[in-house]
């Protein structure tokens, strides 16, 4: 797979009328690869709200429709940048899921657990640094945010079937964020937000 290595972002990433903002990579789609030793110092802002949509991540905003049996690595990356919504700390005007390293993973829908996609995500030796503030409409997490699927609110809850076969490995990661605030339901987590 491809690699992004030793990159730095110091610029503000302002998503005008959009709901995805990433310090290094906005949306990672398809082929597996590696993001390694990349640092984000920039402030991230999403400005558009639409249902379950939207994500922000200090390194990667969203992993979307990964390829079957591929591996997606985020290694030795650091986030120093805060994540805000349209009105900074107003959580109702933010992307749905936000995290210091990887904001959201969205898989294809699946009719049953055995039919879900199989791929591997590895987040290793990553740090969400002191002083970082993360605001989100739903989930705010220090390292990895929320796992979802194409139509999360349709026909009950299809998320568990869609994400059942996804392998997630988080090792030696640290979160020192000063604020993790997730919307009216106050969903927040130091390392992993939610994986069914």
Order of helices and strands: EEEEEEEEEEEEEEEEEEEEHEEEEE
State the end-to-end CA separation: 27 Å
On the 0-100 scale, what is the average pLDDT?
92
Whole-angstrom Rg: 15 Å
Oligomer: single chain
Unreliable residue stretches: none
Task: Tell me the strand order in the biggest sheet.
Answer: 1-6-11-16-21
Number of strands: 25
Share of β-strand residues: over 45%
Structural class: mainly beta
The major beta sheet can be summarized as: 5 strands, parallel
Q: What overall geometry do the principal axes of the alpha carbons give?
A: globular
The number of distinct helices, counting runs of at least 4 residues, comes to: 1
Helicity, in percent?
A: under 10%
Structure, described:
There is one protein chain. The protein is an all-beta fold and 196 residues long. The protein has one helix at residues 159-163; strands spanning 2-5, 8-9, 13-15, 20-22, 25-30, 33-36, 39-40, 44-46, 55-57, 60-66, 71-75, 78-79, 83-84, 97-99, 102-107, 120-124, 127-128, 133-136, 139-141, 144-149, 167-171, 174-175, 179-182, 187-189, 192-194. The strands form 6 sheets. It has a 5-stranded parallel beta sheet with strand order 1-6-11-16-21, with no helix packed on it. The protein has a 5-stranded parallel beta sheet with strand order 2-7-12-17-22, with no helix packed on it. The longest helix has 5 residues, at 159-163. The protein is globular and about 40 Å long. The two termini are 27 Å apart. The model has no long low-confidence stretch (mean pLDDT 92).
